[in-house]
Known about the structure:
By secondary structure, the chain is α/β, with parallel strands linked by helices. The chain has 21 helices and 20 strands. 47% of the residues are buried.
Amino acid sequence: MILSDSSTSIPAARSTDPVTTFARRVVAGKVIACKLVGKAAERHLRDLAEGGARGLRFDRAAAEYAINFFGFLRHNKGELAGRVVTLEPWERFAIGSIFGWIRADGTRRFRTAYLEIPKKNGKSLIAAGVGLYGLVADRELGSEVYSVATKREQARIVFGTAHDMVRASPELRGLVDVLKLNLSVGRTGSKFEPLAAEEKSADGLNPHFVTVDELHRHRSAALRNLMAAGTAARRQPLMFIITTAGDNDPASAYAVEHDYAEKVLIGAADDDSYFAFVTTADDPAQWDDPRQWAMANPNLGVSVKLDFLAEQAVMAKASPSKKADFLRYHLNVRTSDAARAIDLDVWARNAGEPIDLKALAGRKCGLAIDIASKQDIAATVKVFPPIGSETRWIIVPRFFTPAATIDKRGERDRAHYRLWADQSWMEATPGNVIDHSRIRDTVLEDGRLFEIETLPYDPWNSTQLAVELQDAGLPVVEFVQGLRSYSAPTKAFLDMLADEKIRHGSNPVLTWMASNLHVQRDKNDNLMPTKAASTGRIDGITAAIMAFGALTNAAGKASVYDTRGVVVV
Length: 569
């Protein structure tokens, strides 16, 4: 241990495990916590039982080594200034999780840690402590630690906190050389510096730890991604992201990161390298309820005072703008009209049993085709209305993607395309573009197995395919793209999800697409499916909505020949 080269060593682990203790208390309802904190706790407990099969193990000693490191640090502001830092239970959970989970090769499991917490809950202090740990206690020679932000002043907040902590710590003061914009350890060749996008390029850096401060202020993810790319040569780097909720831009760096973190927590994305801890009010409509305050503010009663929040709530009642600020900055609620359209807990409740296609043979269905891009993903989705005593509509998707670029696009979209193809959830067709003839053949096969009542299609990139299918005798109709066409079936689809009248069988690709779904709304309250970011695919969901729309309102749909004429090739 690098720090133990001095006269001080980090205390040994205690007999109890604070990470698992916190997780169990949350799951048992003994801690007021929002749903996403509950998901983080459940993930830890589930991985304790199942992680070994994936080469993961929880090292209590490593967890407490990191937790106990904070005992060398002192608060630099407020009424606690000068006092030794004592981590709260939720902080011990986060720090212990990040540093305690280990891979089969002995390196840390988590390479990215995302903490989204309201203001005044100690994010900067935690980030500064993590940065100092990377500087002096992580056994990394030549460690480079950077606190990054888009503006100079913001980048120096975390660094400044770390700077003050070193000067106040008897243990660290003799180990770390302190300059205005640099902390360094000469004998290990390690350094800790602030870095702002406006000051200099991050090209050529070799970061070991990176703290990204207030991601919601970043116009793009360029700096975050560039720093992440720079860690490639490190054995166990860490990208440590802290932020408060962002605004209403669903394509912002914050929104993309938040949405991915939420997917990891709820199981829509499988990423063993990503840790997420997000606190928020579960019911923003009850924003003046102190219980919602406690969910969002894990440091309530410590660094966040109850009477302060009460005062802010009184002002929020008198001003819409102050209410928006209260929701965003104190309850960590995104002030956005483009929030995710599908609650993923609701989606999970609609999973039902795995779907046996053979048992559906001969049933009536609608089948929709969505080929938004020839180079990404195409979807066909069958929707079966309930029969007899059934209460649920059954959704059966099929996905196609070009094989030649599957790995590159999977990395770009942060999606498991290769894994899904290997597990037959998605079909990788040869070449750089989707093979439309393969889609045609599978639809024709479906036409022989099921009674297809209507076959709506998005005309973008698929007119020729539609003509071929209609020539084969299938009931092809163009689904007109626009708010008026999509609004009614989108609302019906979302309502059926809310009423648990859908069965999707937990298809992981469709679940991922459900997590990407947002809605566009006009002044007349018409809805249309949209995605939050360019990398968020929703083809399977839009195809399902098209199939619902065509099945429930088949009259008035136009034939491909009526709208496009006969295509001669």
